[in-house]
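HUMAN: You are asked to prepare a plain-text protein record giving the amino acid sequence and the backbone structure tokens, both parts labelled.

ASSISTANT:
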Amino acid sequence: MPHFDNRISMGEARDLLNRLELLTLYHDEWVSGFLRSIICNEPPDTSCLAADSHRTCRFGHWLEQEIHDALRTAPIVSDIRLIHENMHAAYRKLLLTWQEDGRVLAKDYDEASVKKMAFQLSVSTMQFMIYDYLFQVDPLTKTLNRTKLLSTLERERNRISETGEKSAIAMVDIDFFKKVNDTYGHVVGDTVLVQVSLFLSTSLRPMDIIFRYGGEEFLLYLPGVGKKDAVTILDRIRVNLAENRILLETGNEICITASFGVSSLDPNTEIALSVDKADQALYMAKKGGRNRVVWLD
């Protein structure tokens, strides 16, 4: 995932972080109880010996039954599911060997410890992805925010300086957005922002990236395109947006247009200068009557 699945709300992501923390603690207690049985020569919990214990422990039950539908087939979750199952198998092997021979082989103990570490690392990776999502995604539109923008464009600038590939930056401003807020209120204004960001996201190519720059402005990054292709792509989006009607809960419909200012991502200048040039192009588009695409060399 380029960032955490945006079908997950910010509140759900925070709840997921707390849930993972609690489940990891439960699992640590499970391992401690497991080892206590061996070290203290106490009868083990019979559930530890079950072949499906990776499904019946609290963490496994969450993975199988309670996890958000949007995450069930996510690569990180698939990895955790397999690693978790392997860890359970390794610890079950320890317990069975101890019951049969009254001892535990060092190699089996080391294998179980390694698999426990792999499990902890995989969960930590998922937690990091959620933190990245929470702090680098705009909570309203689910697009990437300006914090992510700078690091992404810097990475891309370094890449195209080596490959010679052309790339474009587009500043997008919703036309007369203040009038929408003044006429319908800020709740409707937020609806418009969400709908426009969704429209842009679904209209762009898979490799393109959308950021919320601030207010009613978005920044689009289009890798692998020069002036002609960038203008063609954005003009198509501009026309389709103008023809798209946003349906409000009141039953009213709003027609929205946007102005686009476009320039290249220059590998030989600071990111801020490339963004500023696209911003100048946006100003020219608005001054020229709005609802248009302007390229600035």
Remarks:
- The chain has two domains: 10-136, 146-295.
- The CA atoms of residues 171 and 219 lie 5 Å apart.
- The beta strands are 167-174, 209-214, 217-223, 245-247, 253-255, 258-264, 293-295.
- The mean pLDDT is 90.
